[in-house]
């Protein structure tokens, strides 16, 4: 899955946040729903302009960011 085909970043849309192409649905919204335990099908039902491939693209985009950025966690 090439997330670039389904995600755009445009300074004129949602303040330049990554969005699903053709929508104003931010990738972070999709990821927040996944983190909350919703399935791809549930997310598509909540946002009818989305497709399952958009949810997959959001996950692929997040994986790409995780490879490029280190987030420090507290030591146990």
What characteristics describe this protein?
mainly alpha; Arc Repressor Mutant, subunit A
List the helices and strands and how they pair.
Elements: E1 7-8, E2 19-20, H1 27-35, H2 40-46, H3 52-68
Antiparallel strand pairs: 1-2
- What is the name of the CATH architecture? Orthogonal Bundle
Percentage of helical residues? 40-55%
CATH class: Mainly Alpha
Please state roughly what percent of the residues sit in beta strands, choosing from under 5%, 5-15%, 15-25%, 25-35%, 35-45% or over 45%: 5-15%
Count of the domains: 1
**Unreliable runs:** none
Biggest sheet: strand arrangement: 1-2
Shape: globular
Summarize the helix and strand pattern as letters: EEHHH
Number of helices: 3
Distance between the termini: 36 Å
| Rg over C-alpha atoms, rounded to the nearest angstrom | 13 Å
User: How would you sum up the major sheet?
Assistant: 2 strands, antiparallel
CATH superfamily: Winged helix-like DNA-binding domain superfamily/Winged helix DNA-binding domain
Number of strands: 2
User: Average pLDDT, to the nearest integer?
Assistant: 92
Q: Which structural category fits the helices and strands?
A: mainly alpha
Q: Write the CATH fold name.
A: Arc Repressor Mutant, subunit A
């Amino acid at each position: 899955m090439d997330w670039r085909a389904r995600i755009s970043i445009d300074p004129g849309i949602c303040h330049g946040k990554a969005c699903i192409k053709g929508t104003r649905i931010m990738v972070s919204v999709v990821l927040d729903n996944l983190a909350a335990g919703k399935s791809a099908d549930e997310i598509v039902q909540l946002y009818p302009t989305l497709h399952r491939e958009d949810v997959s693209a959001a996950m692929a985009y997040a994986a790409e960011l995780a490879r490029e950025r280190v987030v420090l966690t507290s030591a146990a």
